Amino acid sequence: MNWSEIRVHTTNEAVEPISNIMHETGASGVVIEDPADLVKEHDTFFGEVYELNPDEYPEEGVYVKAYLPVNSFLGETVEEIKQAINNLKRYDIDLGRNEITVSEIGEEEWATAWKKYYKPVKISEKITIIPTWEAYEPVSTDEVIIELDPGMAFGTGTHPTTVMSIQAIEQYIHKNDVVIDVGCGSGVLSIASALLGAQEVHAFDLDDVAVKSTKINTELNNMESKVTPKQNNLLDHVDMQTDIIVSNILAEIIVRFIDEAWRNLKPNGLFITSGIIQAKKQMVKNELEKAGFEIITLNEMEDWVSIIAKKNQTKSGA
Fold it and tell me: What does the pLDDT look like over 14-46, one tens digit per residue?
């Protein structure tokens, strides 16, 4: 079988929503080529170094590449992708050049080319994320390993927004906590919560592909007894008392369910939000405080922001 590579020349801000669009249309794997990666150190635990070719990277902006099978519906699928990406403008997302190109590659090239981008990465004090095909031995007794299959997942778990989310979970979670993961994607935050001591995790996503991906990765990490993936629109019709709600999605989506997050959190419960670009930081912060949340931590990594908010015992002004 031959595959089509769909390449979108866009901005760092648009990487995650465009990646989700690609997966929703059936893409088998997504590759992000950011020129900033060329100047980063990428040593792995095996002493290897990523062999990145500068010629494959844009001088400015970011490439998002997805792979779709060549079939009679390819033209229609590409048009759907273009329309969905253009619709992101409604959320004031900077698409940059927004240039889309399509090229054909062979089965073997598709199956192996993107693996060079995905190696074991230690993303917090305890958590290390590894691809399923890599052999890896923990380097410390308290190291926690998460295995992901990026052929099914919504990313490799190493994007700054995911890293900050997991670091926050690791810092604030307590044994036997109940956690909700809103917009679970690959399920990496749900799995991290379970491995770090949560008693039960409810993983919600509107996209059925994400729910299936979470289920696969949860089983891969033997956490199916703790993590329950379910198709659901944000926190619609959800009524439970939880210790932590975590959500790594667009800022514009986060502000839509802040009130629902408040209702579903126990007193002193935490709302861990990520996926927020710098330009939207104040908007999210204002909406959280307006709902009664106390901002306890604000973390930044590259151009991204994570806000951890606490539900006070009584709502201010109530």
Answer: 988 998 888 778 776 678 887 766 555 544 433
Give, in degrees to the nearest 5, the angle at Cα 93 between 15 and 122: 30
Domain ranges of the chain: 3-117, 121-311
CA dihedral 220, 225, 231, 233 (to 10 degrees): -110
d(CA 186, CA 192): 11
Q: Phi first, then psi: give them for residue 134, nearest 5 degrees.
A: -95, 135
Fold of 3-117: Alpha-Beta Plaits (3.30.70)
| DSSP character at residue 148 | E
Superfamily for domain range 121-311: Vaccinia Virus protein VP39 (3.40.50.150)
User: Rounded CA gap, 100 and 310, in Å?
Assistant: 42
Record the pTM. Answer: 0.72
Which tens digits make up the pLDDT trace of 222-272? 999 999 999 999 999 999 999 999 999 889 999 999 999 999 999 999 999
Q: Could you give the CA distance from residue 153 to residue 159 in angstroms, rounded to a whole number? A: 13
